[in-house]
Each structure stands twice: as C-alpha cells, then as structure tokens.
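agent> fetching stored inputs for the adenosine-5'-triphosphate docking request
agent> found them:
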Amino acid sequence: MTDVAIRAERLVKDYAGSGPPWKRTAPFRALQGVDLEVRRGEVFGFLGPNGAGKSTTIRILLDLLRPTAGRVEVLGRTPATAGPSLRARIGYLPGELTMAGQRTAGEELAYLVSLRGGAGRDAIAPLAERFGLDLDRPIRGLSKGNKQKIGVIQAFVHAPELLILDEPTSGLDPLLQREFLDLVREARDRGATVLMSSHVLSEVEDVAGRVAIIRAGEIVDTDDVGTLRHHAGQQVVLHFGDHVAVEEFHGLPGVEDVRLDGGQLTCLLRGEPDALLKVAARHHVRGWSAQDRELEDLFLDFYRLPVDPVAEREEVAAHGR
Ligand SMILES: Nc1ncnc2c1ncn2[C@@H]1O[C@H](COP(=O)(O)OP(=O)(O)OP(=O)(O)O)[C@@H](O)[C@H]1O
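agent> prediction call returned; pasting tokens
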C-alpha cells in the first residue's frame, strides 16, 4: 500500500463560457497545473482565497468534474474509473450542500447513508446529539449552520479512510467549530486522512500537519505548519536616540519591509537578527521589541500579490484555451 492518499499532478481545468450570447461569460482557466500530495494519516489544510480553485480541485478528486489535463490518484485508484467502491471509502462534505427540503434531518441522513450501503447508520444519532442537531426537524426550515451539521455528520458517519471537506466550518459557531475539530482529531487518531479546505488559516492551524496555499489556480506554497510559523518571522521595532538613515537598513539579510518614522524603525525579520543588530548598534538604541508574527500575516502575504481575474479570463479567451 502506498503512503500517499491523494496525488494530483499538473491539474489544469478550463471552464467553458456559459450563458446566452449577449451575457456569455468568457472561458476561464481555473486551475493552472496544480500539484498536490496528501500522505496517508495526515490532516492537510488546503488554503486559499475565494475563487482560488479549491472547490474545483476537490471536485476533480471526487470525479464530480473532469480535469482538462493532468492526473489524479485517490487511495491508489483513479477516480474517473474506480466508481462507487472508491466513493464508499471517502467522506465528502461539499462546499455547497443541496438537500431535499421536504425530508427531516434524520430522513436525509438515513437516505445518504443508504446510498453507501448503510454503513454508519448507528452513528447518526450519537453524532446528531454531539452537534445538537434535532433529527425530527424538516430541512426546509433549518438554518445554514444546522444544514452544515447534516453535511458534517454524513461525511464522518461511516468512519471513512479519507475525508475530503470543502470549507467544513462555514456556518458553524465557535463551539461547534471546536466540536468539529475534535472530530477531525479523532479521525486522524484512528488513522484516517483528512483534506480540508478553508480561506482562513486559523481554522486549520491547530489540526493540520501540513498546508498547501492555492492562489489563482496555482499552488504557491506547501509546507508543514511549524515551518510556516518559522517563515512568518518577527515584527521588529527599534527606537533611536540619534539620527539614522533608512538606507542603512536596506538590503540587510533577512530584513524586509523597513520603515522609518521619526526615530522609530520597524521591519520584518526572517532568520537571524545579527546583521540588523550590528547596524542598529552603530547608533544610540533607546528601546526595541521583537514580536512573532501571526501565521495569518504570512498567509496574507501570499494573498496580497495582485491578481487580475478579468485579465486572466481575457487571456484564456484570446488564446482559445
Ligand atoms: N462552472 C464554472 N464556470 C465558469 N467558471 C467557474 C465555474 N466554477 C467555478 N468557476 C470559477 O473558477 C474559479 C475557481 O473557483 P472555485 O470554486 O474552485 O474556487 P474556491 O477556491 O473553491 O473558492 P470559494 O472559496 O469561493 O468556493 C473561480 O474564479 C470561479 O469563478
């Protein structure tokens, strides 16, 4: 058995334009060669801003969409040919749930479980209890959060080998988010693999071992959370009692984003402070502080690089891809 649960290689997905001729959307390349490798037994965070391509990638993994180019392997099988036997080993929570409104929550869960041959039927009630979901209520009147509980329960109920969860915490209040993360940890502890997408790092930070960051259809970074934290660096502030020129601090190794305001210098430090401190020590240093940056700040660095989706759409249209 291979130790890789999910492997995607050079995935490309083009969406054709849609709609009537007078308001037809242009063709669009949503994935531009995505590589992803999720190891068996790990919790893997799939992070990116809205529209980055997370759902498109996930839907390809489940063969709900076919890629324009590239290869996918899930639990050692090719989703496009493996059929229901592969689906039965996966718990999938879609980003957008569609459920029949006339059923009760309990009937819907029983129905979803029956589609997979009934595995996990007995776990419905305890999970509903844990998430405070009333199984007798019709879906029609349920809030977004209650519908999301149904989605979470149906994904976990049959204790699958692999969980693929698209924005799982959306709509859940903080208490239920915590309950959900406990469920993820329990799945990991019994050896399951979890891929979960989010646009907020803090949602996956505590459970994920590794994360991949996708932006505009490209993976821009894959790393373990500990390394990411290290890369996040420190925000350094130095107060000088004499005149300093900002240029003295430009180009120092590991020092970025240098700003001088009066006698106060701020910068981002990644790595050793040696070079920075040696330049600072030529002056009268009245005070200093160095604060670890939040991982969220690093994450935002990746987001900040401007992307113009309209220009990209036009380019795809122009090249007829
Ligand atoms: N059927 C479609 N036709 C055309 N474009 C699409 C289609 N589905 C998605 N897109 C576009 O592809 C890009 C990627 O969408 P996708 O839903 O995969 O992103 P995402 O990262 O999951 O974002 P979100 O968090 O908003 O769901 C977006 O720009 C989206 O508008």
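agent> quick read of the result: Residues 5 and 264 are 50 Å apart (CA to CA).
agent> awaiting further instructions
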